[in-house]
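Regression report. Comparing outputs from two consecutive submissions.

Submission 1:
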Amino acid sequence: MNRLVGRPAPDFSLPTALGNGEDFGQSKLNDYKGKWLVLFFYPLDFTFI
């Protein structure tokens, strides 16, 4: 497996929950070009089981 630290992230687009907690939107990596960005996810947040 190759190291990914220090390498540029591939361009991507994904659905996101907006800050109001009710609506969803679309985020793209290019929206944050030239800015610091920390990505995290917790896949169980929207599991309705």
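Submission 2:
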Amino acid sequence: MAGWDELIGQQEAIDVLRAAAAARPGDASVMTHSWLITGPPGSGRSNLAFAFAAALLSPAGNGDTDEATERQVDARTHPDLAVLSTERVIITIDEVRSLLSSSQFSPSVGRYRVMIIEDADRMTERTSNLLLKALEEPPPRTVWILCAPSDADLLPTIRSRVRSVRLRVPSVSDVAALLERRNGIDAVTALRAAREAQSHIGMAQRLATHPEARERRSSTLGLVLGIRSVPDAVNAAATLLELATADAKAITEERDAEERQQALRSLGVEPGGTVPPALRSQLKALEEDQKRRATRSLRDGLDRILVDLMSLFRDILLVQLQAPTELVNEAIRSDVERAAAASEPQDSLGVLDAIATARERIEGNVAPALAMEAMLMSVARPHQRADARPTA
């Protein structure tokens, strides 16, 4: 039961998947061989996929899970579970080929063999077409579970062969309650973290448990609120890029070193020893993987900054329109109100559009510095216009 209990605000989706896990194999009215779980970032797509997998693999077969199966699924060690996840920009075709080979095995201890692909939207068209063949003719008792932000992120041919389960954004109060229960966070901190994370569970947990994450977010908003000119915008873009780069480096650097040491040990190379020429290609492949992961980590960090800025200018717009809605950044309401008084609603809408464009450009491989500078120019524009007005 614990697997289902960790999911909040998704009872409708849980009911569908629990009923499917309790169905007899072959009962097509309830159970199907391929599923697509969609929902906004932080809604719990992966958590739901693994809870469903644990229920499918549980010996009881009644839609619930048992502790032993849950532990194996959490550790990704269950013999009938295969998982494909990536921290890089795309899922490679070789990774999918390997997963497809694994899907051909019959279940060894359970009723099903479960194949999970997290971030299925990161597959290219060619890779997706390879997966499509497996979905068209799946082996008996093999279940595919794909996760993506929306069904529009996958090829229409794949969408036509999966059953979709859509998740909703959990409420701020539900996320805060989860942080209190699971992490022992005090109510005030949990509520602020849930609100500022906009109900993104993973980000809310990070804000609630890491003071440096809260400081980074506060510095980001303060920096942008202080922009008054084009030079300010250019300098702010450079600073934000430095913050995102440092954050990404902190996340990946220690892991990269550990992976390299493990690779050297597995190749029989002593610490500090020279790598034989015949083995250098393997280390080169590892380094390329790490570079791709670093690129993904930097993009994710920049996107988190842009999402925070989007919440800021959404709040400014709400204050300008005198909307009776609670602010995401309630803790800095006075700063938001000052910014709202210094510009017009159309200015705030322009900045929101610029942020959305910057997110698209960075995801499309535009140089992050250029995308951030162009976006922050829109923040400076109202102040430039005010400075250009003739004085009485």
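Expected: both submissions complete independently.
Actual: both completed, but the second showed a warning that disappeared on reload.
Relevant detail on submission 2: Residues 2-166 form a domain with the Rossmann fold fold (CATH 3.40.50.300).
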